[in-house]
Amino acid sequence: MNERRAIDYLNEMYEAASEALSFVGGMDGAAFAGDKLTFKAVTFCHFTIGAAASRLLVTHPEFATEHPDLPWTKICGTGNRILDGVFDLDPSDIWEATYRTLPELLSAIDAIRHWHAQGE
Protein backbone atom coordinates (compact mmCIF):
# COMPACT_ATOMS: atom_id res chain seq x y z
CA MET A 1 0.00 0.00 0.00
CA ASN A 2 1.32 3.41 -0.93
CA GLU A 3 1.33 5.42 2.30
CA ARG A 4 0.59 9.07 1.82
CA ARG A 5 2.98 11.60 3.24
CA ALA A 6 1.88 13.88 6.05
CA ILE A 7 2.14 16.90 3.78
CA ASP A 8 -0.38 15.29 1.38
CA TYR A 9 -2.98 15.12 4.15
CA LEU A 10 -2.16 18.68 5.11
CA ASN A 11 -2.65 19.77 1.51
CA GLU A 12 -6.02 18.00 1.44
CA MET A 13 -7.05 19.92 4.56
CA TYR A 14 -5.91 23.18 2.95
CA GLU A 15 -7.81 22.51 -0.26
CA ALA A 16 -11.03 21.67 1.58
CA ALA A 17 -10.78 24.80 3.76
CA SER A 18 -10.12 26.97 0.72
CA GLU A 19 -13.06 25.46 -1.13
CA ALA A 20 -15.41 25.98 1.81
CA LEU A 21 -14.49 29.66 2.01
CA SER A 22 -14.88 30.10 -1.73
CA PHE A 23 -18.31 28.43 -1.63
CA VAL A 24 -19.59 30.95 0.93
CA GLY A 25 -17.88 33.97 -0.60
CA GLY A 26 -20.31 36.89 -0.77
CA MET A 27 -22.99 35.15 1.29
CA ASP A 28 -24.34 36.11 4.66
CA GLY A 29 -25.54 33.65 7.27
CA ALA A 30 -29.18 33.81 6.16
CA ALA A 31 -28.33 33.16 2.52
CA PHE A 32 -26.12 30.27 3.57
CA ALA A 33 -28.85 28.74 5.73
CA GLY A 34 -31.26 28.94 2.80
CA ASP A 35 -28.89 27.45 0.24
CA LYS A 36 -29.03 23.69 0.76
CA LEU A 37 -26.41 22.90 -1.88
CA THR A 38 -23.83 25.29 -0.43
CA PHE A 39 -24.62 24.14 3.11
CA LYS A 40 -23.99 20.52 2.16
CA ALA A 41 -20.84 21.35 0.19
CA VAL A 42 -19.34 23.36 3.04
CA THR A 43 -20.32 20.71 5.58
CA PHE A 44 -18.57 18.09 3.46
CA CYS A 45 -15.47 20.30 3.36
CA HIS A 46 -15.44 20.43 7.18
CA PHE A 47 -15.86 16.66 7.27
CA THR A 48 -12.98 16.24 4.79
CA ILE A 49 -10.72 18.43 6.93
CA GLY A 50 -11.47 16.32 10.00
CA ALA A 51 -11.01 13.05 8.13
CA ALA A 52 -7.68 14.13 6.62
CA ALA A 53 -6.45 15.33 10.03
CA SER A 54 -7.50 12.06 11.65
CA ARG A 55 -5.76 10.00 8.98
CA LEU A 56 -2.63 12.15 9.23
CA LEU A 57 -2.46 11.56 12.97
CA VAL A 58 -2.97 7.81 12.59
CA THR A 59 -0.28 7.41 9.93
CA HIS A 60 2.11 10.10 11.19
CA PRO A 61 1.54 10.54 14.95
CA GLU A 62 4.77 12.47 15.34
CA PHE A 63 3.37 15.23 13.15
CA ALA A 64 1.05 16.52 15.88
CA THR A 65 3.95 16.65 18.32
CA GLU A 66 6.05 18.57 15.79
CA HIS A 67 3.17 20.99 15.11
CA PRO A 68 1.27 21.61 18.33
CA ASP A 69 0.05 24.99 17.03
CA LEU A 70 -2.87 23.25 15.31
CA PRO A 71 -5.76 22.14 17.54
CA TRP A 72 -5.66 18.53 16.30
CA THR A 73 -8.27 17.19 18.71
CA LYS A 74 -10.74 19.92 17.77
CA ILE A 75 -10.12 19.49 14.03
CA CYS A 76 -10.64 15.73 14.19
CA GLY A 77 -13.62 16.16 16.51
CA THR A 78 -15.40 18.46 14.06
CA GLY A 79 -15.38 15.76 11.40
CA ASN A 80 -16.68 13.22 13.89
CA ARG A 81 -19.46 15.53 15.12
CA ILE A 82 -20.58 16.14 11.54
CA LEU A 83 -20.68 12.41 10.86
CA ASP A 84 -22.53 11.69 14.11
CA GLY A 85 -25.04 14.52 13.70
CA VAL A 86 -25.42 14.62 9.94
CA PHE A 87 -29.22 14.75 10.15
CA ASP A 88 -29.32 17.42 12.86
CA LEU A 89 -26.73 19.94 11.70
CA ASP A 90 -27.48 23.60 12.30
CA PRO A 91 -26.46 25.83 9.38
CA SER A 92 -25.52 28.63 11.78
CA ASP A 93 -22.98 26.34 13.49
CA ILE A 94 -21.38 25.43 10.16
CA TRP A 95 -21.44 29.08 9.09
CA GLU A 96 -19.76 30.17 12.31
CA ALA A 97 -17.14 27.41 12.11
CA THR A 98 -16.36 28.34 8.52
CA TYR A 99 -15.68 32.01 9.18
CA ARG A 100 -14.23 31.59 12.67
CA THR A 101 -11.84 28.67 12.18
CA LEU A 102 -10.98 28.15 8.53
CA PRO A 103 -8.99 31.36 7.91
CA GLU A 104 -6.85 30.52 10.96
CA LEU A 105 -6.45 26.95 9.77
CA LEU A 106 -5.27 28.13 6.34
CA SER A 107 -2.69 30.44 7.95
CA ALA A 108 -1.42 27.67 10.21
CA ILE A 109 -1.13 25.21 7.33
CA ASP A 110 0.71 27.83 5.25
CA ALA A 111 3.19 28.28 8.09
CA ILE A 112 3.76 24.52 8.37
CA ARG A 113 4.18 24.13 4.62
CA HIS A 114 6.66 27.02 4.58
CA TRP A 115 8.53 25.44 7.50
CA HIS A 116 8.77 22.12 5.63
CA ALA A 117 9.79 23.83 2.40
CA GLN A 118 12.71 25.40 4.29
CA GLY A 119 13.89 21.91 5.17
CA GLU A 120 13.10 22.05 8.86
From TrEMBL:
Keywords: Hydrolase, Nuclease, Nucleotide-binding, Phosphoprotein, Toxin-antitoxin system. One of its GO terms (molecular function) is nucleotide binding. GO terms for cellular component: toxin-antitoxin complex. Pfam families: HepT-like (PF01934). This is DUF86 domain-containing protein.
